Amino acid sequence: MIELRHLRTLIALRDCTSMAEAAERVNLTQSALSHQLKDLENRTGTLLVIRKTRPLRFTTAGQRLLNLASDILPMVRSAELDLERLAGGEAGRLHLAIECHSCYQWLMPTIDEFRNHWPDVELDLASGFNFAPLPALQRGDLDLVVTSDPEELVGVSYIPLFRYESLLAVANQHPLAARNHIEPEDLSKEILISYPVERHRLDIFTRFLDPAGVEPLAVRTSELTVMMMQLVASGRGVSALPNWALAEYLEKGYVSARPLGRDGVTGTLFAAVREDQLDTPYMQDFLLTAKDISADTLSGIERAR
């Protein structure tokens, strides 16, 4: 008989790069996890995981059980949440702010799913573009901040949601579209189109141009990603954005995109949460839902580990 612990182990093996990391995820020793996996293989009568690969690879049978785990475990979690509410009536407040202009693509489905699970939690969403959300989180005015720029603040933890790569979007006819990658000096004669946020919060400056001592010809700002892409497509500038924010425009052929530097520029999107709220059931559910929906919705990202 297949048990829930087996399915949770398979999910951990999928999300982790090694048996040791997976064992830590499910609070087992590596030996205990190996025994549990062997037990499941004995029960099913087939090999499920190819162990000498990194990351671990699943056999066809293992992938079938992994698909089952992906279907069943969210249903179990939803039922557990319903039982918790019936038993104790979980209620609270979840006031959010985002520092990411293009986050709505995955954040709004996350919020919709969360409302279904936690109708008694007061939910509010604000943009963090015109005020300092992390100090507001520390004060207790907010409960969660979505940010790619963590600051060391007492009592605040940062939970990684997913990793991404920043790319430079250029017009299809732009000479840079023929390059394998972009060098900082390539932007010295380009108008850089960015969101209207401080320079120190933009990876294109802090991790690409500033270390090389390069300035773009000019900087132009826009609040909307679609407007930025219209400007890029018409040859009025270039723009650095996360790969997942560009995916829709690249698939439709509106613009081209190239990596920043030979090794690329990668970043992580975090959920900043006060430590006193981190273990509340509805906060844990929001974080898990955000990770699941972003992984299912966005192209080119890497699951946070």
TrEMBL record:
DNA-binding in keyword set: yes
Classification via Pfam families: HTH_1, LysR_substrate
Subcellular location: Cytoplasm
Top-rank taxon: Bacteria
Species in which this protein is naturally found: Aestuariirhabdus litorea
Family: Belongs to the LysR transcriptional regulatory family.
Molecular-function GO terms, alphabetical: DNA-binding transcription factor activity; transcription cis-regulatory region binding
Domain HTH lysR-type: 2-59
PROSITE patterns registered for this protein in UniProt: HTH_LYSR
A single GO cellular-component term on record: cytoplasm
Protein name: HTH-type transcriptional regulator MetR
Swiss-Prot/TrEMBL keywords: Activator, Amino-acid biosynthesis, Cytoplasm, DNA-binding, Methionine biosynthesis, Repressor, Transcription, Transcription regulation
Keyword tRNA-binding: no
GO biological process terms on file: methionine biosynthetic process
